[in-house]
């Protein structure tokens, strides 16, 4: 089946998912207590003023009608406007895509750059000291709180040896790269242990297989054996593991965004939840859903591209 | 006679297992030169395929050559580190395995796998190596090479996959091909085609063959010499004709009897009772003694050496009265 | 009667002279330097009606009110207005405007702009309640505005000094409200350059500002940085000039840091322990007084504010108008606490619930400290945590027993808080405590409608004493506004009602 | 032999932690919530081996008692998702078709749904505390196991020994349990080990949102959360609990690897 038809089919399949999520988030957001008006009015909120603002925001109408309007707007490509700063939600999300996108890709690339060499090192001599070290050290990344890692990186590379900006996203592209390096490294420190574990396991399995014997019998160079024969096969299994974790990461980068002052979609969501800014929460949830679905689709496409045995059905 | 390309003297191999140190090979010697064709026969677990891997430096991490010599072009390379020995030998020796699908990289096209040695070791350019590969594909009898070049291993049949494995082994134009039961997993008709291919290669390009199998019929068809292996040692070696017609070791004799003979009408198949010994304990006496019909107390205490007898060699105290065995069988009504 | 007019007139006269002095005789130096503010709040909107702390400061650099609160937070001085006189009927206020005021688009400010802004503010759903007393606004001439109040209303000038009554262009200069608030036009020292929601907002100097020579700065940018540590790094690393609300725990190290100055500005801000008087035990004044005695305020200040603050003795913060220092606010005294409890019906085995907001250091501290000291009185305190927004809703629905709450004055006049917190007109059931004391309500009314400061002081001193004795709420502490800035910044100051004038700030 | 060693070391470390948690009252004389307001934020002293936190509570005793909460949450929040995820993974992989695609759509929905919004809703229904955290993690956690096991089942289904088992006419449930499960479960076990650590860390992020374990319960996640404001001056307040999570993670990964090599042998 051609790529296009497969991608088309998968995208159509996601419609029920997106619909399911829109219903779920709409009901949950409207059910959990805490009035947006109460947040908008701050300390002056009296019950009757809250009623006035709720009416102004149109959230005192029955949920079903609100949902229908929400879907109607959706079809016209608008996710509504934020309660607090009256900006269209789509503009708010799009405004943060560059930051989130670069941070995510930076995190993935760095974790691959960390995971690949370390797992090759570990798998080359199973059980040796280097294998134990490679398995033990990244666990520190998994265990330590992200805030701690972020702050330590800032102290070390931001203030003590000012190689990287302490915060912000910069204006020009090179400045973007410099400013997302430390946050991406923080993400990579969390993501790479999971990648190392999966890569190492599949590499050990492959090293025992016969086609590595054939390759060795051919007398081709060790680097070629490692990269062409071992790695190409090992990466296949780890792509799915990476896919699952990237999907999870999209929603949980808020701590890194906060510590490094990179305005991503994670903090947009957290601020909106605290302020009960329904349109933003709904809009960002749908955005997350779309991203996760695309990430899963991309994972499957890469998986099929890497492994000829897998047919796109 | 010029010195043989590869000659193995008294090779011993130890394997670290969680049941202790296993003496997989206990002193094996043989020579192989281009044009020769040696069959190594024995039950599974006798150490025949480990012998090949030991010579070519393909032993797994938990196994190593403990003693013995491997002469290549007159120089002992047994002590060389595995990787160095592999690099040296890979110009003259190739190897093919039993399960072809497992022996081919599943994610690379067969064409590229065949072209890999010419391209990355022999330094040929991309187009040159592609031509070499296409020629090799035809040479191993795969039709329509151009369209098959870009297929993946899982898209080929068992027989075709084995031919690709052979093509890969031939890509370094070796003088000797080590075969580790390449036809066992194939059905008979495909098996015959692959064997015919090996014979042609031997005849046309003088390819030396070391053929490991448990199937005597295959050895009979393809090999000149035969080495019967039991419990990590050669117990009989000689020409195929003499050994088949006149076995000088009880184990070889029993093997030949056990082999089903299509044209003879036989009521009951003969099988050798008992099983191969566990090589993690030291061997006392002749390992085959417990299952031997010709053995006596002496065989239990010391292990016979490989000595010349008639026109082959045999490691058995009773080998000199091998011609009586056939007679006593007919008496006991078992053919 | 006459004497009252004289006094008020005198007050205003002094204020006018002061206004003229304010105009510094400095050379017309061109504005220099771009100042970077870092804060943990994100700017939301230029609409004065719904403005909260996240947007007020920035609005105040763009819009300006008729009157401005003085630096000590106790009263107001003329700003866009020159003088204000109240007629003998005590309801007609005549306000003369300055004639040299221009909007940032160069057009002059007239009484029409003032009428439009004030009418719009009064109709607002958010801050409209401040102008409930205003009846009609008329504009006899371009530079005079006459305001008629429904009844004598002393806090009028303080109300007019509130940011919600800032002066905008008449009917939004022809644009729609939404568009106007996207590119606002005010008379303030700065005007909008760009705004990226969730990141920063930048204002640049307004060339046509009426105070000559000001602002000194070329631009001011407020960056949204939630993480306390990161703000500190940015300040020390030179990426920020002023850090708003550094955590109390870092004040000591900031003071010691080279090139950094720390400002702890007195704040008209108080924190309270609210009691729900509907709960039987808490309807008993002795129990409330016992609990209030059992609050170890010194320990609380040490834990929550790292020592930067002081125990409060009145419902009003010290720098609010008519604050009475002699108010007998209950302080920490376990012996008196035990005595009070003994007098109540609930001698032993009382269980109360404290509603805490998840993730708040203050609530954790108050809950834990109170739990420990109440245990000594035989009162078991159960702690229930809720997500912040959920906690606010539970509190407003009066479904709590005890919880923390607080207030920041927006104007210098105490009436804003006292009405909101004590009178039925406030609409909050006395700050959600269900406390009601007729004499107190009457005194609040008296203070509201009497213009004579002496009469108001008597009324408000009574209110403060009575509320303290009734232990309506446990008064916790008053904390200063905390700012840290680089030493090359001068002229930065924050008023008790949480506002500052960036036009006076210089970057050396 | 090699794998047994790692299994024992891992189990040893975890065992000491569990024992320390159980016998906490014997190890430390301090009550985890007892405050000493004169001694707040003190560094390690003879009285307080690991110093005191912002409210003058003994950090060492809070670590010990905290272990109880975290280990229970860690195990509970993984046990249920493991069972649900693995069985669903087995069935979707084996049966495929309509059942498989509908479950996969549910999986996509759950992965795509932001964890925080779900957590708040659950905290509203169950009230804050361990129960709602475990339920929140369970509702989201099973998805990973389902995907991992399903991927393995799809591969294993084509292998000969499964074809052979089918030919023997054994009931499907038996085939799945006896033949399929042991071969597809190893990756799920490895993942469950790091999943336990992730569940403990989830509490820290929930704490960030004010949804963590209610005060004043001693718990590593809230200790990290409460220690964060002091990360520059009293850095050990947030670091030590984080380090404890690392130790648990390290022990669990050893056990995971040990188990896997036992299973594959």
Low-confidence stretches of chain D: none
Backbone CA Rg of chain D: 22 Å
Q: Which structural class best describes the helix and strand composition of chain D?
A: mainly alpha
**Radius of gyration of chain A, CA atoms, in whole angstroms:** 24 Å
Mean pLDDT of chain D: 82
Order of H and E elements of chain D: HHHHHHHHHH
Q: Please report the total strand number of chain D as a whole number.
A: 0
- What can be said about the biggest beta sheet of chain D? none
Residues in β-strands, percent of chain D:
under 5%
Instruction: Quickly count the helices of chain A.
Output: 13
Description:
The complex is a heterotetramer of chains A (313), B (335), C (508) and D (265). Chain A is an all-alpha fold. Chain A has 13 helices and no strands. In chain A, helix 1 runs antiparallel to helix 13 and helix 6 packs across helix 8. Chain B is of the alpha/beta class. Chain B folds into 2 domains: 6-223, 3-Layer(aba) Sandwich (Rossmann fold), CATH 3.40.50; 227-328, no CATH class. Chain B has 13 helices and 12 strands. Chain B has helices at residues 48-56, 82-90, 100-103, 110-120, 126-139, 145-148, 158-170, 188-205, 216-222, 240-245, 250-258, 297-301, 322-331; strands at residues 6-17, 20-32, 37-41, 63-72, 75-76, 93-96, 176-180, 208-213, 225-230, 233-239, 307-309, 312-314. In chain B, helix 4 crosses helix 5 (126-139), helix 4 (110-120) runs parallel beside helix 7 and helix 7 packs parallel to helix 8 (188-205). Chain C is an alpha+beta fold and 508 residues long. Chain C is 33% helix and 23% strand. Chain C has 17 helices and 23 strands. By secondary structure, chain D is an all-alpha fold. In chain D, helix 1 packs across helix 10 (236-264), helix 3 runs parallel beside helix 6 and helix 5 crosses helix 6 (130-157). The chains are: A mainly alpha (313), B alpha/beta (335), C alpha+beta (508), D mainly alpha (265).
What is the secondary structure topology, with strand pairs?
The complex is a heterotetramer of chains A (313), B (335), C (508) and D (265).
Chain A: H1 3-31, H2 36-41, H3 47-57, H4 63-75, H5 89-124, H6 129-143, H7 146-160, H8 173-207, H9 210-218, H10 222-251, H11 254-260, H12 265-275, H13 278-306
Chain B: E1 6-17, E2 20-32, E3 37-41, H1 48-56, E4 63-72, E5 75-76, H2 82-90, E6 93-96, H3 100-103, H4 110-120, H5 126-139, H6 145-148, H7 158-170, E7 176-180, H8 188-205, E8 208-213, H9 216-222, E9 225-230, E10 233-239, H10 240-245, H11 250-258, H12 297-301, E11 307-309, E12 312-314, H13 322-331
Parallel strand pairs in B: 3-8, 3-9, 6-7, 7-8
Antiparallel strand pairs in B: 1-2, 1-4, 4-5, 9-10, 10-12, 11-12
Chain C: H1 2-22, E1 34-39, H2 53-62, E2 67-69, E3 76-78, E4 81-86, E5 92-97, H3 111-123, E6 134-141, E7 144-149, H4 156-160, H5 177-182, E8 190-196, E9 200-205, E10 219-224, H6 228-236, E11 242-244, H7 251-256, E12 260-265, E13 269-275, H8 280-283, H9 285-293, H10 297-305, E14 310-311, H11 334-343, E15 350-357, H12 361-376, E16 379-386, H13 388-396, E17 402-408, H14 415-422, H15 429-432, H16 438-449, H17 453-470, E18 473-478, E19 481-486, E20 489-490, E21 494-495, E22 499-500, E23 506-507
Parallel strand pairs in C: 1-10, 1-11, 15-16, 15-17
Antiparallel strand pairs in C: 2-3, 4-5, 5-7, 6-7, 8-9, 9-10, 11-19, 12-19, 13-17, 13-18, 14-18, 20-23, 21-22
Helix pairs in contact in C: 9-11, 10-12, 14-16, 16-17
